[in-house]
Amino acid sequence: MPYLNSAPFFWGLSLGERFELTTTVPREMGRQAASGEVAAGLLPLIDFLRLQDRFERLGPFGIAVRGRARSVMLFSRKPIRQLDGAAIALTEETSTSAILLRLLLEHRYQLSPAAYRRGTDLTGDALLLIGDEALRFQETNTQYPFEIDLAFEWWLWQHLPCVFAVWAIRKDVSAQEKKELQLALSGSLGMSQSQHAAIAHEWALSLGVPAKELADYLGRFVYRFSAPEEEGIARFNQLVNEHHLL
Fold first, then answer.
1. Which structural domain, as residue segments, surrounds residue 236?
2. Would strands 115-118 and 87-90 be described as parallel, antiparallel, or unpaired?
3. Which of 57, 60, 111, 137 makes an SS bond possible with 84, Cβ 3.0 to 4.6 Å?
C-alpha cells in the first residue's frame, strides 16, 4: 500500500524468497484479492467483509484511527449538512472510504446526494480524497473552503475507532507461510514504531508537508488492534449490512 500511513508495516520488512511484494492502492487491492492475484495484504475493510469466504485476518494488524485521520478527507464547497442533492467526486483509489462517506451523508445526516462519480473532477460540490493524495491536496487547496475529516465524523457519530484496512490472507495459504508473514509484520512494526521521524523525513519532500507534521500524523494511527478497534469493525459491518451497502 503506497501511502505514508501504511509505511510502518513495510519499513524494514524482511520477507523470504517465497513472498513477492506488489504495490497497489486500496480499491485495486480489493479487486486483485477478489480475482486471486494477491495472497495477502492490507485489505480495505469493506473488501475484507466481502471476501471473508476466502480470506481471514492475519494477526491483530491493520490501520485505524481514534479521532482525526487527516488523510480521508471530503473537500466541499458547502458545510456537510448542506450537501443534500450534491454531486460528489470520489477518488478512484478509495474502497472503504466511499462506503463510509455514504453512511455519514445518507444515514448520519439523512442527506440524498444527487450523484457519486468516480474520478477527481474539481467541478462538483465536493471531492473525496484519501491517503497521500489527500495530504498533498490540503497543502494547495484553494477551491474548497470546507475540509471534512471522515474519520472524525465517524468518531463523533459512533464513538469508536475508524478502521480503514486489516491485514488479511487467503485461507488456503499454508499455516507455515501465515506464521512467517505474521512474524515478519510484527517485527517490522516493532522496528518502525520508534522511527516515525525518519519515515516522515523520507516522505516530506514528495508530499510537500513538513516532516514534523508527518511524524505527528503517523502517531495518530493504530496498527495493532485491541477491543475498541474490533468494536469499530463490528459496528461498521453492522451498518453496512443494515443499509445494504456491502
1. 4-66+161-242
2. parallel
3. 111
